[in-house]
Amino acid sequence: MESLDRFDVTHLALSVDEDDIVTVTLNRADKRNALNAATIEELIDVFSNLPRMGARAVILRGEGTHFCAGLDLVEHHREDRRPDEFMHLCLRWHEAFNKMEYGGVPIIAALKGAVVGGGLELASSAHIRVADQTTYFALPEGQRGLFTGGGATIRVADLVGKARMIDMMLTGRVYKGEEAVNVGLAQYLVENSEAKALELAREAAKHPPLTNFAICSAISHMQNMSALDAAYAEAVVAGVVNTQPAARGRLEAFANKTAARVRPE
Ligand code: 1HE
């Protein structure tokens, strides 16, 4: 893939491995990776460009012991923003997170420690969430006198349902461990979330990019449509993806009985 040198980042750290799997690290450990306005701009830049630069999958992680403490509350306090200023800031958050969710490249969030407030909004924009035993999820906006502004009303409500989200916001309820998996906040609970995220990324990266593009954009788009339009859009996407040259060899292998069969472990 293209070199990552083109990115001018200070709050994020970027690296790529030999399989074109990119690791995006939230790099403000001393601030528990709180999301200031500058970090959001870096996320927009990175996730607007990574898909067309040839990234096959992305691991999203945090430096230090916490994934992300959400909105930079100190910056927000210092800036003393007007309503219109904060609204515009939220639109930048949405820009970043929409680039992630709809960008067409699998993003796997390797979680640990706090995944709270805007940190949960960020994590819920990834396609897969992997938690470890230290990971906990919360929406502490209520206790800060705030409201979610980075898409939680859409994505967190999608993951856990409206009633649980309202409970999290009204009562400060914290989810962790198996319970977090059971309510849909994470898909995996493991000893080492970063190792597992990399394993999952390698698995996903074996697919043709066009197939992953469909999985990591079309499903989200279709959820925004009526069932009738979604069915039509699905047929169009499948028309393109399911006839791609990259699928032919795989179909031939199945027909020749050389391809792996689908079996439980
Ligand atoms: C921060 C932030 C932050 C830490 N903004 N600076 N999110 C929250 O309500 C969560 C707020 N944070 C915490 O509850 C705790 O910091 C943690 C549980 C995440 C970590 O605790 P701990 O004991 O490891 O760290 P700490 O001592 O609290 O903080 C260490 C430093 O990180 C300290 O800075 P320092 O300069 O005094 O060393 C903290 O100020 C800084 N820090 N979290 C700014 N969030 C689009 S709307 C979204 C709305 C929301 O996200 S609201 C939820 C906000």
UniProtKB/TrEMBL annotation:
SUPFAM superfamilies reported for this sequence: ClpP/crotonase
Record keyword ATP-binding present: no
CDD domains: crotonase-like
Alphabetical UniProt keywords: Lyase
Superkingdom of origin: Bacteria
GO-annotated molecular function: lyase activity
Pfam families: ECH_1
Keyword Lyase set for record: yes
BP-aspect Gene Ontology terms: fatty acid beta-oxidation
NCBIfam families reported for this sequence: PRK08150.1 (NF006013)
Family: Belongs to the enoyl-CoA hydratase/isomerase family.
This protein's name: Crotonase/enoyl-CoA hydratase family protein
Native source species: Palleronia caenipelagi
